[in-house]
Structures are given as structure tokens and as C-alpha cells.
Amino acid sequence: MKIIVTGGAGFIGSNFVFHMLDTYKDYKIVCIDALTYAGNMSTLKSVADDPNFKFYKADIADREAIYKIFETEKPDIVVNFAAESHVDRSIEDPEIFLRTNILGTAVLMDACRKYGIQRYHQVSTDEVYGDLPLDRPDLFFTEDTPIHTSSPYSSSKASADLLVLAYHRTYGLPVSISRCSNNYGPYHFPEKLIPLMIINALHDKPLPVYGEGINVRDWLYVEDHCRAIDLIIHKGKVGEVYNVGGHNEMRNIDIVKLICKELNKPESLITYVTDRKGHDMRYAIDPTKIHNELGWLPETKFADGIKKTIAWYLENREWWEEIISGEYKNYYDRMYKDR
Ligand code: NAD
Ligand code: DAU
Fold this sequence. Notes:
By secondary structure, the protein is an alpha/beta fold. The chain has a single domain (about 1-190, about 220-245, about 280-300), classed as 3-Layer(aba) Sandwich (Rossmann fold), CATH 3.40.50. About 40% of the residues lie in helices and about 15% in strands. The protein contains twelve helices and 13 strands. Helix 1 (about 10-25) packs across helix 7 (about 220-235), helix 2 (about 65-75) packs parallel to helix 4 (about 95-115) and helix 6 packs parallel to helix 8 (about 250-260). The chain is globular. The structure holds nicotinamide-adenine-dinucleotide (NAD) and 2'deoxy-thymidine-5'-diphospho-alpha-D-glucose (DAU). Nicotinamide-adenine-dinucleotide binds next to helix 1, helix 4 and strand 5. 2'deoxy-thymidine-5'-diphospho-alpha-D-glucose binds near residues 86, 192, 210, 276 and 283.
């Protein structure tokens, strides 16, 4: 079995590459990644010499490059993680989100049609459902919840999902889609809430909480997401959408306070800053379908996962120190200075 994993030098894609190489000793994993600001070869260091692993630096929206790779590799399955993934960057400048997330998805699926595959899997997000009100804890996103996006990022992901379902109906492409809640764990890029707060706290820098910090996210340890995708590509039904989440809703402010506690840092570092434009209030996944059909359940409790994650950032300083000493500094100033 040969699987093309796009975006494998990013956060979830790399964790998926590790999971698959560990789990299936006879599978070939071919990673395609453009190595944007979010992709990092040092993330893939541990598998670089694995004979079952191969890497191509390429943009998924570059039709010629993608067709060439498919022609050479002839994959059985394609799992598309490659995306522009940060909501704040999409608010600053949406264009690249449209190119990578929408056009890139179409190019990959065209390559699948041209060269033939068993399965094209699209890694999507719960953000395509928009948000839920804070005062209705009884409401959850199911696979039937209407698409109702808020940001350029989520709109680009929703557009891609619609294209994926259209390619299934129109061309009979064997597709599946997973829509997961917020992930956390090793190799999470420092711009995202949890790593940003860990790294700032370690430097005794202000911890910038948007608005009042009462927005709720439904956190899942990254390895649990990777196991869900593994199950879907092997046993999930073609043409179906699967929601992935572990009923672990937390307010942002409570996460930040927990990080302060774990690192023995004062809560006085917490600074409330101007809210994100169009900020989604609450995400909450109903994972009944993937549980009933595929037997998936999350394995890592948040209390353990956050400890493991903090320990990883403490033990892998060189990985994130290199990132935050580069172009990231400009991003951080643009986003947080005078906010
Ligand atoms: P990330 O930003 O950490 O990594 C994205 C990777 O894609 C990087 O390695 C980057 O170099 C690569 N990439 C970007 N543009 C590319 C292009 N044009 N061609 C080839 N490679 C390109 O993202 P992530 O957090 O790992 O998210 C992976 C996927 O999972 C995304 O599709 C995202 O929408 C989805 N998702 C993320 C979360 C989350 O909490 N992080 C939750 C649900 C779904
Ligand atoms: O739900 C899945 C989505 O989760 C994925 O599709 C996205 O790719 C991923 O980035 C993530 O989106 P969020 O916008 O929820 O994640 P982020 O880490 O950017 O923010 C989490 C919450 O924390 C959100 O309510 C905004 C808030 N926040 C974030 C940052 C970076 C802050 O309060 N301060 C910050 O500095």
C-alpha cells in the first residue's frame, strides 16, 4: 500500500506520517509538502532515512508538479492535510487560502482521477459548521449540521469540502472527509493558542488572550485524530463525512490558566487583547457516527495530553527556538504589537 500524505511537514500531517510508519511496517508513505512558513523538515528528521518514507517538496496547486509525482509514485490512497491553517492569517490576507485550500484540493483530486486511486481523503475541520452559542450546551455539530462559515480560512475549507463531495457525485471519485475539532500535541506551530502560550510563558512574556477569553474549543490530542483518519481511510464508507472530537470543551482562559499552573508561572502574565474579527464562540463535535460505525474513541485525556505536550515543548526547545527566531518575529509583531 502506498499513501501520499500532503502537508506532512506540518503539525498533524507529520504526526500522521509517524503514526502510519509505526503502525504499518509494509506501507510506503510519500510526503508532498511545499515547506511554507508552517512546514519544517526538522519535524521529519526522525523518519528521513526510513526506506518506507519519501519526500517531495511541491505545491499542491502546481498541477504539473503534482501530476508528475502521481505518475511516478502511483499511490493507492491520498490523504490531504496540506493547507493554510491559521484563522488570524486568513483574516489578514485571504488569497493564499483560496489558492492552497481550494485550488490545491481540486488539483489533487484531478490527479487522482487521471492516475486512479482507491481513496482520496480530505482532512477538514469543524470550523466549516460555524459556531454554537455559549448558552446552548445541549447543541453539538453533527455531520448534518449546515455549513455556515465565519472566516476566510473556514470558508476556504468548506469550499474544498463541497468540491470533494462534487467530485464524488460527478466523477465517482472514491472520497471521504473528516471534520475534526482543535488538535494539540507535539510539533504544533507556535502561532496557535497552546504552543504560543507555553512558549510565551517560558519567556515570561505577556499571554495575549483575545476578547474575554470565554470562547470555547473542543480539544483533541493529535494522535487520536491520526487514529481516526487511519480508520476512515481503511474502513470508512466512500462518499461519507465523519466528525472527529472527544467531548473536551474548554474556555480559552481556562487553558491559559492551566498552562500557567503547569509551568509555575503567575497568572499576572495574562493580558486581554483586542478580539479576533468574527471570532467563533464555541465548537463542539458530536462524534457518534465515527464511534458507532468505526469504533473510534479518543484515548488521551486532556489532563494527560496537556502535560505530555508541555513536556514535549520543554524537551524540544531547539525545534521551536529556530522557528520563533526567524520570520515568525515579524508575524508576531504584526499580530500582537499594539493590539
Ligand atoms: P499546519 O499549518 O501545521 O501544516 C500545514 C502543512 O501544509 C505545512 O507543512 C505546510 O508547509 C503545508 N502546505 C501549505 N501549503 C501548501 C501547499 N500549497 N502545497 C503543499 N503543502 C503545503 O496545519 P495543521 O494544523 O497540521 O493542519 C493540517 C490540516 O488539518 C489542515 O487541512 C487543517 O485545515 C486541518 N485541521 C487542523 C486542525 C488543528 O487543530 N490544527 C483541526 C482540524 C483540521
Ligand atoms: O477547530 C479546528 C481548527 O482549530 C482548525 O481548523 C484550525 O486549523 C486551527 O488553527 C484551530 O483554529 P482556532 O482558531 O480554534 O485555533 P487557534 O489556536 O488560532 O485559537 C484557539 C482559540 O484561542 C481561539 O478562540 C482564539 C484564541 N486565541 C488564539 C491565539 C493564537 C487567543 O485568545 N490568543 C491567541 O494568541
